[in-house]
Specification:
By secondary structure, the chain is α/β, with parallel strands linked by helices. The chain has helices spanning 15-21, 47-67, 87-92, 101-115, 138-151, 173-176, 195-203, and strands at 32-40, 70-78, 82-85, 122-129, 154-160, 184-189. The chain has one domain (29-132, 150-203): 3-Layer(aba) Sandwich (Rossmann fold), CATH 3.40.50.
């Protein structure tokens, strides 16, 4: 059934599913994948923006589950600071104040270094934001994005901008387009009809697609 903004229905990547999937970690890299969902949860990310982001993350997780036997998922929420959170907190808890996008990427790097070494894990990271970031953070965000791309099979940035929404003029797309990495993709999502073509464009950059 179609999920509409504002509903409390959960996508089926919750604890029971995850517990079954990661009881044991295979020592072969081709069996293991982690999906790292990073999202700006500052005050400018309203319900519609989170709905569009959630729809993209859901597609990504379901696709990765068809490719790998052992799949884990990590949720990183950030405003000016980032933290690993539960699925419920990720999609429903918001923060006031501004945004340092670099904090989300730095947290993702910390988590991969601690738990998901690239020699054993296929790493898929995607970040959703409305593009509103403190200008002073842009250089750090680009540096951290480059570092994260180096350890990922696939890394992407999705700018969520429903037509007519607040902060429509703010954008990080031009900043991240400076990142020269063959496994990095930026997409612009303005409406739900953009999700599927954006998803296909993202997957075209997958380093592991021929495995």
């Amino acid at each position: 059934a179609e999920v509409t903004p504002g509903t409390e229905r959960r996508f089926p990547f919750h604890e029971d599913d995850l517990t079954y999937r990661h009881m044991t970690t295979d020592v072969k890299k081709e069996s293991n994948a982690v999906v790292i969902c990073i999202m700006d949860t500052s005050g400018s990310m309203d319900t519609m923006k989170k709905y569009l982001a959630r729809s993209f993350f859901f597609l990504l997780y379901q696709f990765i589950c068809t490719k790998y036997r052992n799949v884990e998922i990590v949720f990183i929420a950030h405003h000016t600071e980032a933290s690993e959170v539960t699925e419920e907190e990720f999609f429903h808890k918001g923060e006031s104040g501004g945004t340092f996008i670099s904090s989300g990427f730095t947290k993702a790097l910390e988590i991969t270094q601690a738990r998901y070494h690239p020699s054993l894990w296929n790493i898929y990271a995607f970040h959703c934001s409305d593009g509103d970031n403190f200008d002073s953070d842009n250089p750090a965000a680009l540096r951290a994005a480059k570092e994260l791309a180096e350890v990922c099979n696939l890394f992407g940035y999705g700018e969520i901008k429903p037509l007519g929404s607040r902060y429509y003029e703010s954008s990080m797309l031009n900043i991240f387009r400076r990142l020269e990495a063959d496994n990095f993709q930026t997409v612009l999502i303005e409406r739900k009809e953009d999700i599927w073509p954006s998803f296909k464009a993202f997957l075209a950059r997958d380093r592991g697609r021929d495995q």
